[in-house]
Structures are given as structure tokens and as C-alpha cells.
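Deliverable D5.2: sample structural annotation.
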Amino acid sequence: MFKSSVWVVALWAAVCAACSEAAPANEEPARERVVLGLVGKSQSNPVFQAAYTGAKAAAAELGAQRGIDVVIDWQTPPDEDPAAQAAALEQLARRGVRGIAVSVSEANTLRPAIDKAVELGAQVVCFDSDAPGSARFAFLGTDDIACGRQVGSELAAALGGVGTVAILAGNQAAPNLAARVEGVRASLAEHEGLNLLDDGIYYHAETPEQAAETVARAQSTHPEIDGWAFVGGWPLYTRGSLRWEPGAVKVVSVDALPAQLSYLESGHVNVLLEQDCFAWGYRSVELLLARVLDGEVPAEGPRLTMPLREIRAAQVPEVLARWEAWRGDR
């Protein structure tokens, strides 16, 4: 009997000691931590910096709403490199991230990488540029055919429906850009007075310097070019890239980044078509959290498209204010 009593007392003492070492009653339990990867095309492109800002804003706001910590693991290569993107996807998935948002530089390279990431347990959403046929559960971005058609339509209006046109097309392997080129061509075909220069689709590395040199060389070789359709705004990221008098050549471009706006004000560019780059990141995080935490897929289907805003010179102050919010205040 005595030994049993001693054992009971010892057990009770151990329980009390454990309780005394437990966290205070008013201390909150550790919050769930959800890590999401973000892989843009290149860190040198400001549209992906804006997407990163949007993703971080969503992580803070939606994490607070859900009572969890959401962490964004930014694994975008310094410059466009599909192989580096593919490696980043696998590394993120092997580290156990719950989801990944990726803008696809080259579909053939990224498609198997996306499938592998999903096989390893990460949910994947594409933004800006898609990988159709991959295991990604959704795509968020521009309707690229419609985007190209809008570029062509605005350029036709600027030219009065008459003239010779060239297309600045970026990376030939990027599916989103190929679709925009297709849209421009379809739009130009609707105007009898417009003709696309023979071999007038110009591909190039997506850096401001390469794009600007491509435009300058083409314009010098073909002074008959009356208008340019830029399916991406690469040459407008640097000063002095349009080497003609304002209005001498008409230009319509996708994107409306701060660096590009001076070309609107100077009259070198007629219209910019703004994509909501901040929302690429914000909505991607929103979609990923709904998928990994709630098992949800977008009710509107796997392809979610976002409209473009037409930006003209009078709207420059409004756009600059929007970019200030996108780039840092959040």
C-alpha cells in the first residue's frame, strides 16, 4: 500500500511539473505557416516586381484574415531563363511549398516542370503567360488574342487606317506573346489600308537594350514603317530608344510602367495598354490559398482573364499614383 501511495504522489508531482512548464494560458498557439513560391520571368522586368508586391500584399492581408502566416518565396531568375524557372519550380516543390505561381517563359520547358511540381505536392497557378496542357489548376492574365487585337485597333486609329506596320514581338517561344502577335495580325487584316511589312515581326531578347536596338535597326533599314505594334513595352523601359521626332511614327504598346509614361507625354507613343500587374500577384496568392486550404478551384473556370486599361497622356498622373502604391506603400 505504501509503495502504491508513493507512486501516485510521484506521478502527481510529475504532472504538476509539466503543467508548470507549459505555455501561459494567455499565450497564443503557434499560427499555421503556409509558404508559396512565386516565379516570374525576370527580376529585371518591372511588371514582375509589381506582381511580387501584389503577392506580398495578399500574403499579409489574406493571412491576417485566415489567422495564418503566409510567406512568399520569390524565386525569379535575374533575366529570362526558362531552364532556371524549371529548376526553381522543382526546388520549391522539394522544399515543401504548398503552392507556386509562375509566369511561363517557354511552355515546352516549363510544362514538365509544372507537372513535376504538382506530383511533388505543390499546387500551381500560371499568371501572365500560360502552359496549356500542364497540371496547373488555373491561369490568370490577359486574353492575349484580344490584347493583340486591341493593339492593332488602336494603331489603326492612330494611323487613320493607312500605312505600313511592324510588330515588336519579344521572345518567339513565349505563348502569350505569340497569341498577341496573332491578334495584331488579325486586327490589321480588317483594314484594307494597312499592311504588315514583309518579315515585319521582330523577335528579340526581352531586355530594354535588345528591344531598343531591334526597333532602331528595323526603322533604319525600313524607313517606310509608319507604325509599330509593341506586344510588350520593352524598349520603353529606357530613355531615348525611339529615335524619331514625336508623332513621325505611331506607336501603341502593351504595359504602362512609370518608365514608359514619358513616351506618352512626349508624343512618341500614342496609347499604352495597362495590365494589372499588381493583381497578377495578389490574385495568384488568393487562388493558391483557396486551393491548398479549402480545396477550391475557380468557379468561372481554369482561365481567368483581366481587362486592359487604355492609357493616354492625360492619365499619366493617375497611373503614376497607382504605381507608387504598387511598388512600395503596401
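Annotation notes: The longest strand covers residues 194-203. The domain at 33-142+276-307 is CATH 3.40.50.2300 (Rossmann fold).
The annotation will be released with the project's public dataset once the embargo ends.
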